[in-house]
Amino acid sequence: MMRRYVVLLLASLLTCGSPALAQTQSVQPDDFARGLQLDVVDGEAVQVVLVPPLVYRTVTQDDLADVRVFNASGEEVPHALYRRGLHRPASPVPVTLPRFPIRGAERVPVGDLTIQVRRTEAGALVEVRERDAVVRRQPVRAYLLDASGLEAPVERLIVTWPDSARNVLAEVEVATSDDLQRWQTWGTATLARMEYAGQSLLQNEIALPPRQARYIRLTWPSTARWSPVEQVQAVLDEAAEPERQWVALAPKDAEPARYLFDQDGVLPVERVDVTLPQPNTLARVTLASAAQTDGPWQTRYDGLVYRLQLEGRELTTPPLVIPRTTDRFWRMDVDPAGGGLGQGTPTLRLGWTPERLLFVARGAAPFTVAFGSAGVAASDFSARDILRLLPGPEDAVLRQPLATVADTVTLGGPSRLTVADEVPWSRYLLWGALVLGVVFLSVLTVRLIRQIDAERSASEAPSDDPARPS
Prior knowledge:
This protein is 13% helix and 38% strand. The protein is built from 4 helices and 29 strands. The strands form 7 sheets. The protein has a 6-stranded antiparallel β-sheet with strand order 6-9-15-11-12-13, with no helix packed on it. Strands 18-19-25-21-22-23 form a 6-stranded antiparallel β-sheet, with no helix packed on it.
């Protein structure tokens, strides 16, 4: 009987003390610092909301594990982050476009030039030439680019000149058309390939809002310093994504030739734009980032940055493309050669594409996105689990109507952002009960052993009964 009691007590203590069997309480809205109340899209079982900057600047975990979604009853609903398309290569492989020069007199607008075009049934350009033989001897005024074979929108053009071109400077205009008759302006950019202050300066990329068109026209003013183009390449926008967001940072700390910036959050940065304080500045810088001020620091860019006034135009460094990072701190080291940056301080602009938060609209509205809670584990759901509820291919979520933020509310307050310093009485009581149970079990075991030894000794002792054989 005693043995059975001991076994039951031991099993009970192991069950109570085993972390694997301990039950974890579900989180509540007040377990988080802040919340966003949403206006959802009527009739949609799966809602999609773009994660706003406030969330990135409040959460305690860079993977946004401390984000939850609750309905009006305070019940947690299935939710997950969708990040597809946000981890594309920093430098997608460009596609070379067939190009055809358009010639004409300098005084004639390019749009008024008449050309003869031969196309295939699919619309691909085969030949482009001027109608007038005199015009064929005129300088090249533009290039007609054939983009009819592309299956995705174009987000960037890369212009390449021959090695002999050393003095190129022009503000170019880009236009698109589907029929070669009606043209729509797409954007403008200043392109340059020059030698300046003993440094080589190359700016040959044209960033554009993603657009798909059959034909592209690249035009520059007749007075520009230009050179024949060797090739034009297109960088495709493989996955549609919302417009990139930006935040400007002033340096928090400035030492000689070193500037420290703090984004005060975990923004998933993928573009960096350096704004220099003075015109006609050219300097070599090293840009690095780190999760903590004491490092380790990882170099993100090492090269020239510039802000130059050339022939009435300002030429600035285009935004730098970097691998996605949530590092909070940024550091810019300036090479003092050539005077560095001169007077004033630079500004750092960080660009990122917001992630999508998916959730199932179970229960009554309003739904609240709660965020900011130290030590909370990640959600049990994955984006793939929720995407199965949507018809069509997985990337259809990129075209899903978006829920919008209606109001920002305070839930548990700033105290939720740090681990509480209060004594964890429940844990102490559990371990105290476990220790007392072990002590009690030890006492019972000792008593049991003594009892067994006493019974054994009694059975082995000599008997005084004469009838019993010796």
